[in-house]
Each structure stands twice: as C-alpha cells, then as structure tokens.
Amino acid sequence: MNHLAGETSPYLLQHAQNPVDWYPWGPTALQRAQAEDRPIFLSIGYAACHWCHVMERESFEDEAIAARLNATFVPIKVDREERPDLDAIYMTAVQAMTGRGGWPMSVFLTPEGRPFFGGTYFPKQPGHGLPAFGDVLEAVAAAWRERREEVEALARRLADAIARAGVVDAGAADADSAEPGAPEPIVVPDAPAPADRQSAPPASERDVLDRAAALLVTSFDRSSGGWGGTPKFPQPAVIEFLLMRAATRHDGEALAVAERALDAMAAGGIHDQVGGGFHRYSTDGRWRIPHFEKMLSDNAQLARAYVHAFQLTGDPRHAQVAERTLGYLRRELRTADGLFAASQDADTDGVEGATYTWTLEEFRAALAGEADLAASAFGVTPEGHWEGRNVLYRALDDGALAARHGLPPGEVGARLERARDRLLAVRAARPQPARDDKALAAWNGLAIAAFADAARALGRAEDLAAATQAADAALRSLRSRDGRLWRSWKDGRAVHRGYLEDHALLADGLLALYGATFDEHWFVAARELAEVILAHFADPAGGFWDTADDHETLIARPRQLEDGAIPSGGAAASSVLLRLAALTGEERYRAAAQAALPPVAPLAARHPTAFAAWLQAIDLAGAAIDEVAIVGDPADPPARALVRVATRGLQPHRVVAVTSTPGRSRVELLQSRFALRGRPTAFVCRGFSCRQPVTEPEALAAQLVE
After folding, report:
1. Would you give the DSSP letter of residue 347?
2. Is CATH 1.50.10.10 what the domain over 205-349+436-621 is classified as, yes or no?
3. How far apart are CA 232 and CA 631, in angstroms?
4. Which candidate, 221, 618, 639, 668, has a CA 20 to 30 Å from the CA of 562?
5. What are phi and psi for residue 107, nearest 5 degrees?
6. What would the DSSP string read from start to end of 159-183?
7. Does domain 10-189 have CATH number 3.90.1150.180?
8. What's the pLDDT band for 621 if we cut at 50, 70, 90?
C-alpha cells in the first residue's frame, strides 16, 4: 500500500492499492524529493475521467513500470477537482511545452516543483503517435542524470515565465484526453507572453458586449447547434449571456441562437433521454455520441440555463428539460447529508457507457408494445451506431412520430413518458457507474442556484427543498469557524481551504436561494462570503486571485480568467458583488467588481466563448439595475401579487428584496421602507433613489417598464 489510503478523494483512493508509491501533494512528498534530490512525477486527474482509468490499468498497476517510477521519482497523485490551483499551474506548463492539454495530466518536476517535461495520457505500448510510458520514464530519467543543468535551467525559465505573467490560463479542452497530444522532446519554450492582455480595451462596455454577441452569432454552428468542432462541449455560460442579452436588449438573434443550442443538446445523445441530465461532452459534432461521464457542475449550469430560457420564452420544452435534469441530480447525485456528489464515471465495470446503451433486442425486451414508437423516437436500429449499440437521442419529434405511427399528436408524449419509465427501471437493474461522493463547495453552489431558480420559476416544492437542504449542509459542513470555506467534504471530513470559486459560487447560490425564499439567513451568509472574498482574494491592484492570501506558496499564484467547466472565479465574484451592491448600496462591492473588468474586457470581446461569465459581469456592471423593495408578508395574497410582478420572467438587471419587518431587516434596501396605509407596498429604486411607493400590482408593473 502507498500513501493515499488516508485521503477522502475517491480518485486518490482508486490508486491506493497501486504498486506505484504514490504520495498526495504535501510537505511529506515535497521534502522527500528535496532530501533525496529526486525529480517528481506528478499525475493529475479526476474520478470520472475515462483515460485516467485507462492509464491506471495499463501503467500504474504494472509492477515493472511502478518499479521504474519508484526507483527514480517521487510519484504524486492529485485530484484536480480538489486542487484546481495545482491543476491550473501545471496545465499551463503542459500547454506551453506541448501546445495542448487534457487529463490525465503527466508532469515531471524538479524537487522544487518546477515543471520541465509533461504531457497527458501515455500508453503502455507506443501507438497513435505516442511513445510508451516506460520509454518516457527512461528518457526523462536520462535527461535528469545527463543534462541536469540544462533541465533545471529550462524549468526555472518556464516557472519564472508563469509567475511573471501573473495569470494562469486553463485553456485545455475540458475533457480528459480523448485525443491525447504527443509529447515533445525535453525542450521547454517560453510561456505565452502576457502582451495580449495589455491591449487597450474597446471604447465602451456596450461595444464589448455588441462585439462579443456578434461573434457568438457568426461562429455558431447553425446546422448542429453549439460552438466548436469535435469534441463538442456544452457552453452554458455562453447561452446565459445570450439569454441575458435577449431579456435586456430584446435581441431576437441572440435568443434564436441560444434556443437552437438548447434544443440541439436536448435532442442529442449527450442528453440522457431516459434518466435526465447531460453527459460531459459529445465526441461528434452533432451531439449524438457522448463521452459518458456526468458531472454535477455541467448539469447544474445547464439546468439553470434551461430554467432561464423558460422564464424568458414560456416554452414548456425548456422547463421539461430543466425538471428532468434536476430530477437526475436529486435521484443520482444527492448524498445522505443533502449535498451533491461531484460526478459519475464514464465507465461501468471498465466498459465505457455500458449502463446507458442498448441493443435493439434489449430495447424491445424492456418495452414490449411501446418498442416501435420508442425506437422511432430514440433512433434505435438493429446495427446500432456506437460499437454495435445504440445511444438514445431524439431522432423524431412528437409531431413527426404522430404522423409516422398514425397517432393523435397529444398521445405521443404520454406514451414516450411511459417508455422512459420502463427503460429507466430496466437500466436501474444494471451495474451502475461509480460515483465520486465528494461534495465540492463551488459545485454545490451551482446546484443550489439551479434548484433555487427552478423553485421560483416552476413552483416545485421538491426543488426548493433540495436547494435549502444543500445550502444548510454546505454552511454546516464546509464553513469553518472563521467564516471561510473548505473545498471538499466527504466521510465527515472537510479538506483543503476553499478557493475563490468556492466562495463566489456558493455566495451566488445563496443569493439565488434568498431570491426564492426571501429568508434573510441566506442573504447574510452570502454577504459574509463576499467579505471573505474582499479580505483574502482581492488584488489591491484590481481583480481577484484564485487562492487566498495565506494559501500554500506555489511556483505561481494562479488567477484563471477564462471560464473552464465552471465560470471563472473572478467573473463569479464580480457578479455576486454587483448584485450585493444593488441590495446594500455598499460601494466597496461595486468598486471591487468594476476594478476587475478592464483587463478582461478586450479578451472577452475577441474570445467570447472563453469569457462568457465575464461578459455577464460586464453587462451587469453597465446596467441600470432595478432595486425592488417590497414591504409585506410574501405568504399573504396582496404581497404575493406584488412579488409575482417583480419576479416575473427573466430579469437579469433586477434585484428583489421582501420583508414584513423592514425595521429589523439585514438588507439595506429594505431598511427605512414602510407599508403605505398599512398595505403591502413596493418601492422601485435605482442607486437607492426610489420612486413613489405603490400598493397595486398594476402600478408596480408600470414602474418596472418605464
């Protein structure tokens, strides 16, 4: 047994029985490397990563390869989901060395932690342009022995370039290495120069937003939906920006593109047509064949995007996808303590997609009399279209199915729902993919926000219960006595101090929950997290660091601007602070958010798919936000009528606060408000300057459109 047995990360525990003498990242491993003057082999991955499992089976369980690693290196295993700081730093290095990145990430470091060679997945046997992992070990060991001075000089140069840049970009494809890049000789180029970040910003926020929106429209794949080629990833932050623009600028083209993207994904095999939720990405350009892992982060963001599309359009198809996705999260990822687990594997018993795919015979046996209709609906064929099996997707819509099978149009949906129920029951009896049970603060913040927004828009009690239980559990389990967050919770243990994204995204979820309940407990908790952000993550020169001011010293302090699988922590923090500023009038919040925007604005205008969360923050910073304060009990019909008007539809440029006791409220927007003539009363304000109070829903609606 190696040194991983005491960890909580399922990914690390998966490697605890390897013959490789793995260490977790920490002082013990780093001190050993320095004391014995050994290079470090750093392997970074995550539990749901298919190629991580492949490399483990091929190489890390191989006694001969393990002996080579143990004899020459100090092997360290890192779960990228627990340590996004290490992942960002060393991914930047791998990209600088090879021009690409992915997971598993394989990096060789000096004893001081400076990278000098790296890649992604290395096979046991050479092939597909990749050398055998054993040959890589021999080459690196020889370079360390015979060209030590050169290797260390190159490592210093790369580490210094990353540190000088002051910004670490995670531009790797957000997938494990489905197509891993070939490693380069041990020659390390300079890191990408930060000069692009110094260019002058466009003339105005409006110009940035207009240019970004135009580029998103022109780069959109109109035939298949989405952005990019293969593999094709969902882009929830991009869709949210377009929906925001459609709601506030009445941009019909932005709405059309957003809805086409949502519809294409919902119809594809990336969408679990039986159990709800979305797989990580599509291996083809048409959303048909997924890479089968399911991540909490993806599903929470996508569910929220479909909720927002429903709020904007009223289209029940969007609500249905959101409900099924949230149903999947409740059924499959909710843990016993009310938090949400990180992911489910792509593999089942070592076979990718085994739980989710069907032969025609299996499909017919599950459905009997409904099989013909369902096979037409879900594209099931005798030969299959993925390794002899079928990935279900919506081949025909309800209208086309009704015409083909001679059914009344209204009957198709009900019959397909019965078919889904039967297929899910059969599928539940199969072996299931492993679940990574750790609960991450940031990802749970995303889930809380999705459930809270759904509860407000769709009125489902189970969604509100899920959001409330997760928020309670997060504050109970992941918040330390000093008010700061831990990163991860599992088996009764909280580990790793929280990052910027943890504080920002949980705060965002708590603000969404306040908006669904008007329980000030959630507002207060969100504001406390904002104060932690300002105290420990804000850069006095503007912007935010990903790690706290007292974090472990690494070769660089990361500041990841691009969105990855989740929004950039800096973008999320900026949006949270701007919304809090509207609720509190606190200028510190607005100033900190606005100071972060100028360096990012030109990048967001040119690369909107990588900076969509920042585009939302830029939009919010330049908006005239409606601040709606309502005095009254939201459970009483007259006050509830005012609340319905204030929260109707998708309103990205509006905050709403409600209380029946303004004198005791912790929300500054509500303080000094009153009930006019003893009746529930609404105040519409901008910059805390308010119009005449009104008591009738019609009068409130009129003020909100002026």
Report:
1. E
2. yes
3. 48
4. 221
5. -130, 135
6. HHHHHHH------S-SSB-SSPPPP
7. no
8. very high
